[in-house]
Amino acid sequence: MALSGMRGLSVFISDIRNCHNKEQERLRVDKELGNIRTRFKNEKGLSPYEKKKYVWKMLYIYMLGYDVDFGHMETVSLISAPKYPEKQVGYIVTSCLLNENNDFLRMVINTVRNDIIGRNETYQCLALTMVGNIGGKEFSESLAPDVQKLLISSSCRPVVRKKAALCLLRLYRKNPDVVNIDGWSDRMAQLLDERDLGVLTSVMSLFVSLVSNNAEAYWNCLPKCVRILERMARNQDIPQEYTYYGIPSPWLQVLQRILMGTDVVKNVNKNNASHAVLFEALALVMHLDAEKEMMSQCVALLGKFIAVREPNIRYLGLENMSRMLLVTDVQDIIKRHQAQIITSLKDPDISIRRRALDLLYGMCDVTNAKEIVEELLQYLNTAEFAMREELSLKAAILAEKFAPDLSWYVDVILQLIDKAGDFVSDDIWYRVVQFVTNNEDLQPYAAAKAREYLDKPALHETMVKVSAYLLGEYGHLLARRPGCSPKELFAIINDKLPTVSYESYIDVEIQQRAVEYFELSRKGAALADVLAEMPKFPERESALLKKAEDAEVDTAEQSAIKLRSQQQTSSAIVVADQPPVNGSVPASNHLTLVKMPSQNITEESNVTYEEPPVEIPKENGAPVEVESKVENIPETNIESKVEPPAAHPASQADLLADLLGPLAIEGPPAAVEQNPVQGLETNQSPVGDLALATLEDQSNSVQIGLKAEWRAHHGRLVLFLGNKNTAPLLSVQALILPPSHLKTELSSVPDTVPPRAQVQIPLEVVNLRASRDVAVLDFSYTFGTSLVNVKLRLPVVLNKFLQPITLSPEEFFPQWKALNVQNLKVQEVVKGVKPLPLPEIASLFMSLHLAVAPGLDNNLNNLVACTTFFSETTRAMLCLVRIETDPQDRTQLRLTVASGDQYLTFELKEYIKEHLIDIPRVQAASPPVPVQPQLPPAAVPATYNDPGAMLAGLL
Amino acid sequence: MIQAVMVMSTQGKPRLLKFYSYQPPEKHQDLVRGVFQLLSARPDSVSNFVKVDAIFGPGAKLVYKHLATLYFVFVFDSSENELAVLDLVQVFVETLDRCFKNVCELDIVFNFNKLHTILDEMILGGQVIETSSEQIMRSVEEIARLEKQSNTTSLIPKSISERFSR
Question: A534 lies in a domain?
Fold first, then answer.
C-alpha cells in the first residue's frame, strides 16, 4: 500500500459496516461523535495522530450524511501544525467540510500564505489545492499576487505551477480583478510555450477562462495556440489533451485534417481520446460556421456514428446531430438519416432514446411530420413512464405545428389521449376543441371520431371529456348515422360519466353541480319529467319589439352588408353581419377572438356574445332597422353616464340599456319609461356600460356606441363606430384626450368605415389616481365633401373604479376612527342639495358604487356607505362616506368622506357633492343640434377649448 | 468545469463525495440518492452518459463507470467533453488500481482518506490538473514518503515526551 493506514479509523469504518440497520448505524455514529467532542474539549491530552484520526472520522461521518456541527476549528487548526501528516489532513478535510464563507478560514489565512510563499514545495501544493477548491473572496484578495508569482516563477517545479494555474483560475472566477489584463496577455503567451503537459493543461484552463471574458486582449496568443494544437493533432503521440477549446478562426486547416484523418469505423473500439478530439473539432466547425461541404462531411460522419455498436458514440452522434440542426442548410442532409434515428428510439439506453427524441423533435417539419409523429405515437405504447409526458407533449406540438391537414391533427390528438391520457394536459384537448369549433368542415369528422372512441370499453377521463364536448356541440351532424341518434349519443356518454371524477374536483362550485347532476341521473323515471323541455311562456309582447316591428325590413340590403363586411380588411373587427337567430350565439365568424373552454363565463358573455347594435334582432330572426326617433337620445344617453343615474329621467334609459344590452341602445326614452322592468332600478352593478351617440342629419348618420368592462383600476372599452349611410366614411380619425390621471391606449382606427358597417375599436384604460376629470374622444371623419369633427365625453368617471363593499360594524368603526386625520377625513356642509328622500339618496349611492350599510348609524336621518377605490397608485383603498340630513331642511346636509389618501378623499367628496347638488342643466334640456357636415372645418375650433362639452362638435 | 465526483456502491452507499461547486450539506444525501436511483435503473452495456438537469441543475451532465460493486460518477457542465471526462474516470480507476494493487471495494471503503489525496492530484477546483496516471502516482508516492518520514521522526520523540510528562 502506498499510503499509510490508521487503525482507529479502520475499526470505526468496519463497525459502521457491521451495523445491520440505519438505527444501529446512527447509535454508533452518535457514540463516536460524543467521543470526539469530549476529546476535542480537552485538547491537551490529544496527540497529533489522534487529532488526525478524529478529523478523518468526522469527514467519514459527514459523508454518510450526518450533521457534523463541531470540530471545525480543530480541523482548521491542523493546517497550522508543524508536521506534514497533520497539515495534509487539515488541508484536505477543511476543503471538504468548510465553505468559503466559514469564519474559521480567516484564522489560517496567514498560515496558508506562509505555506504558499515558503520554500517547501509540498506545503505549497497543499495550500494551493485547498485554496483552489474552496475559493472565496478573502483568499482571493490576500493570496492572488503570491499565487501569480508561483505560476510564472521559473524556479518552481511543474507540480507546483500547474496547481498555481488552477488556483489562480478559481480566484479569478471569484474576483476577475485579480488578473491585470495588460500584463497578462504577454505572460500567457510565455506560459503557452510550456512543454510540461500537466502545466500546459492547467494553463489552458486558465487561458480559456480569461479569453472567454476578454478575447481581444489575448489575441496575440492565438498563433501559439494553433501551434500547440498542430503539434498535438498532427503527431497523435500525445495521449490526452484538453487544449483546444473554443479558440477561434485559423484552425480550419488543422480541423480538416482531423476530420479526414480519423477513420471512424476503424477507431470505434475504445479510442475515446481521439473521438473526444473529433467531437471538439465538430463543435469548432459548427462554431466557425464553415462552408457547406465541410458541414455535410460532418453530418455524414455523425451518420456513421449513430449506426455503430458502441453506445457512447451513438449517444454523442445523436447529440451532436441535434446541435447541427442549428446550422442552416444541413437539415436536409440530416433527414437522410431519419430511419436510423427512428431506430434509436428503440435503443435499450434511455439516454440514447432521449437524444433520439430530441433530434426527431428538432428535425421535424412539414415534409416529415406525418411519419415522425406516427413513430412517436407508436413509441408511446412501449415508452417508459419517465418519458411519456415529454413524448406526448412533443407529439402534440409537432402535430399542431406541422399538420398537413386538420383531420390528421384531430386523429393524432385523439390517439394521444387514448394512449397516454394521463399525460395529455387540458391545454391540448382545449386546442382540439378550438380547431374543430373554428372549422366547419372538420366538425362531422371530429364528431364521428369521438363517437368511435366511445365504443371502447375503457376510456380515459380526458377522452370522455373531449368526446362529450364534441358530440355535445356537433352530435347533431351525425344524427342520420346508425347509433348516433340524440338518444343513443346521450346514453353512451351518460354511461361513461361515472368514470369522470368531477366529484373530487378542486372547485367547490363544480363539485356541487357534479353531485347535483349525479343525483339527478339517479332519479329514474322522474328524470324524464325533469329533463323535459320547458313549457312555453304565455304570449306577452315586448313593447320594445313592437316598436321595432313597425320599422321596415330590408333583406336585400342585409345580404349586401354581409358581403361588404366580408371584404373588409381593417385591423379592427368589422361586424355588420346579419344578427343570429336567437341572439345568444356568437354573431359572426369574423370574430378573431377564439374562445377556450376554460375561459370564464363573464368574459365570454361580454365579448363573444356582443351583437352589433346596428340592427335589432326580432324574435323570428328577421333583422329590423331602427332609424326612427333617434333625435333625442344621443345627448341624454351619453350624459347619463356622467350624471347620477337617479337624478334624471335619462338615467332610467341608461340603466335599462345596461340591463338589456344592445336591445335598448336605440330605444327611445318614451318606450323605456313604460317598461315594467323599471322596478329593477336598484340593480347594483350592471356588467357593461353603454353609451351611444348618433350624429345625423337627413343624409348622414353615424352611430357611436361604447361598451365597457371594469376590473379594479383597469377598464376595457370597445368603441363602436356604425356608419348607417350608403356611402363610406373616409379619413376616420379618433383620438383620446386623456386627463392626467388616466393612461389610455386606443387601438388603431381604420381609415375608412364602409357603408352600413360597424367598426369596433378596443380601448384600454388604466386609472392612475383619483380625479374627476373626464376623458374626451375626439372623433372626425369626412363624409362626401364635408369634414365632421365631434368631441364626446367618455364615461370613464370616478365611480367606475369604485367597488362597493359591505362592512360589519366591527370592521367599520375601527377604520372610521383610524382615519380621524386631517385631510384624510373631510367634512363639509353641503347646501343647495336636490331635496331627495333618504331612500333615493341611497339608490343614488348604489348607482355610484357606494354600498349603503344600513344599521351602522342609529339616526334614521343619516346614511353610511363604504366602497373600495382602485388606482395604480393607491391600489385597493377603502373609502367611507357618511351623510347626515336635516329632516327640516332637505336642501342641505352634512357630508363626511374618509379614505387613506387625501386626494382621494377630496375628489370623492367633490364627486359625491356634484351628484347631490341640483345644478340647472341647460344642455340637457335643449334639443340636440343636428350635424351640419356642410359647415367649413374652420367653425370647429371653437369647441376644442371645451373638451368637457358633450357632443360639442355638433355645430 | 467538473462539479462533483462521487464513488458509491451498487447499494447506494457513498464511498467518496467531493463537490467542487458548493452544495449545502443537507442536500448531499439527496444528490447521492438521486444519482443512485438513476444509475441503478440502467442496464449494462448502455452508454455512460446521462443528463442530470433534474438533480444538479440546468446543463448538468454525468459520466459514470460501473466497475464490480462500485459506481464512479463525475458530474460536470457543458464546457467539458463527455468522452474526455470518461477517460478521466478511467485514469482515476487505473490510478487506484496501481495504488492498491487490484483495487476492490474494501480498499476504497477503508482508505477513503487516500482517495481524497489521489483525487486532489487529479482535479483542482473542478479543473483537470493531471491526466497521466504515472504523474499522479509519482505525486502520491511522494506524499506517502513524506507521511512515513514524519511519522517515524515525529511519533517517537512525541511518545517519549508524553511518557515523560506523565
Answer: no
Predicted pLDDT at A484 = 80
A:B CB pairs within 8 Å: 194
Q: Tell me, what CATH number does B6's domain have? A: 3.30.450.60
Task: Based on the fold, state whether residues A336 and A394 are members of the same structural domain.
Answer: no
C-alpha cell at A649: 329621467
Which has more confidence, B98 or A678?
A: B98
CA nearest neighbour of A284 among A231, A331, A327: A327
Residue ranges for chain A with pLDDT beneath 50: 1-3, 237-270, 552-692, 697-698, 921-955
> Which residue type, as a one-letter code, is found at position A524?
G
List CB contacts (< 8 A) between A135 and chain B.
125
Q: What total number of domains does chain B contain?
A: 1
Closest CA to B75 of B123, B8, B7, B3: B3
Of B42, B82, B114, which is closest to A3 when you measure between CB atoms?
B114
**Is residue A934 situated within a structural domain?**
no
The boundaries of the domain holding residue A759 are: 630-793
d(CA B34, CA A11) in angstroms, rounded, equals 30
Tell whether A157 and A106 lie within a shared domain. Answer: yes
The set of residues, in sequence order, having a beta carbon less than 8 Å from that of A599 and lying 6+ positions away, is none
- Domain boundary (A309, A344, A363) is at A363
Q: For B124, which DSSP code?
A: E
Amino acid in position A57: K
A816 among annotated binding-site residues: no
pLDDT for residue A233: 60
Residue A191 lies in a domain: yes
Per CB-CB distance under 8 Å, the chain A contacts of B116 are 92, 96
Which of B22, B16, B20, B24 is CA-nearest to residue B35?
B16
> B135 to chain A: which residues are within 8 Å by CB?
198
Domain shared by A783 and A805, yes or no: no
Please check whether residue A539 is in contact with residue A524, taking contact to mean a CB–CB distance below 8 angstroms: no
Q: Do B124 and A10 touch (CB under 8 A)?
A: no
Residue A604: count other Cβ atoms within 10 Å of its Cβ. Answer: 15
Look at residue A207 and give its three-state secondary structure: helix
Residues in chain B: 166
Q: Assess whether A202 and A316 both reside in one domain.
A: no
DSSP letter for A893, please. E
Alpha-helix runs per DSSP H in chain B:
25-40, 53-56, 82-100, 105-110, 112-120, 133-165
List the single residue in A with minimal CA-CA distance to B86.
A272
- Please indicate if the annotation marks A7 as binding a ligand: yes
Mean pLDDT computed over B141-152: 77
| pLDDT in the model for residue B96 | 92
Render pLDDT for B36-83 as a digit per residue (tens, 0 to 9): 999 998 988 899 999 998 899 898 999 999 988 999 999 999 888 888
Q: Are B65 and B50 a contacting pair, CB within 8 Å? A: no
What is the total count of domains within chain A? 5
Report the run of H or E that residue A67 belongs to, with start and end.
Answer: none
Residue where the block lists cell 433520439: A356
Rg (CA), chain A: 41
How much is the CA Rg of chain B, to the nearest whole Å?
18
Distance (Å, rounded) from C-alpha A530 to C-alpha B7?
70
Q: Are residues A307 and A372 in the same domain?
A: no
A788 and A648 belong to one structural domain: yes
How far apart are alpha carbons A550 and B81 in whole angstroms? 84
Domain boundary, last residue among A527, A553, A580 = A527
Residue A944, domain member (yes or no): no
Q: Which residues in chain A have Cβ-Cβ distances shorter than 8 Å to B147?
A: 3-4, 84-85, 88
Q: Residue A12 sits in a domain of what CATH number? A: 1.25.10.10
> Has the ipTM of the complex gone over 0.90?
no
Q: Which residue has the cell 356541487?
A: A512
Cβ within 8 Å, pair B83-A63: no
Which residues, including other chains, have CB under 8 Å from residue B164's CB and lie 6 or more apart? none
